[in-house]
């Protein structure tokens, strides 16, 4: 019996929404978030770095991706609620600039795997949000594209989000890659 259930797959199975097993009793609960052998069976690589962010309500982070080396990330909300997004930036892909967004809550553990070649972002829908990342590379060249790029057209569930200076001034996909789409 696997401790991880694939809830849905997107972009030909590259992006996966994963439901880990949670064991509950009168004290609370325990969620198994990673088992190397089971993730290998799901075709998700080993992780070499873990980190987390804390955000306030209406904070939007993204759209971030890493190059040289490219990096995949497993993203999970530990506390609060968020709208997580993965955007296909693979130029040769038939789903180039397509996106998948999903609502995730710390109360219902769910993970989103977005491999290298995808930008990622999220907006905080609760007063306090903790998001954990597991990365399959140490540190790639950190890049960003506009969260509201009209060529992507993400339907964010937040209005007038709080942005970092870097995210607010990020280039569009066309500007970043230096060519028209």
Keywords:
181 residues; Jelly Rolls; 5-stranded antiparallel sheet; 13 strands; 8% helix
Topology diagram in text:
Elements: E1 4-10, E2 15-20, E3 22-25, E4 28-31, H1 36-41, E5 49-56, E6 60-67, E7 73-79, E8 81-88, E9 99-105, E10 111-114, E11 118-124, E12 128-135, E13 141-144, H2 165-168, H3 173-177
Describe, in plain words, how this protein is organized in 3D.
This protein has 181 residues and is mainly beta. The protein has a single domain (4-177), classed as Jelly Rolls. It contains three helices and 13 strands. It has helices at residues 36-41, 165-168, 173-177, and strands spanning 4-10, 15-20, 22-25, 28-31, 49-56, 60-67, 73-79, 81-88, 99-105, 111-114, 118-124, 128-135, 141-144. A six-stranded antiparallel β-sheet has the order 1-2-10-7-12-5, with no helix packed on it. Strands 9-8-11-6-13 form a five-stranded antiparallel β-sheet, with no helix packed on it. A two-stranded antiparallel ribbon has the order 3-4. The longest helix has 6 residues, at 36-41. The radius of gyration is 16 Å and the shape is globular. The mean pLDDT is 93.
Q: Based on the coordinates given, report the CATH architecture.
A: Sandwich
CATH superfamily: Jelly Rolls
Distance between the termini: 45 Å
Please compute the radius of gyration using only Cα atoms: 16 Å
The ordered H/E elements are EEEEHEEEEEEEEEHH
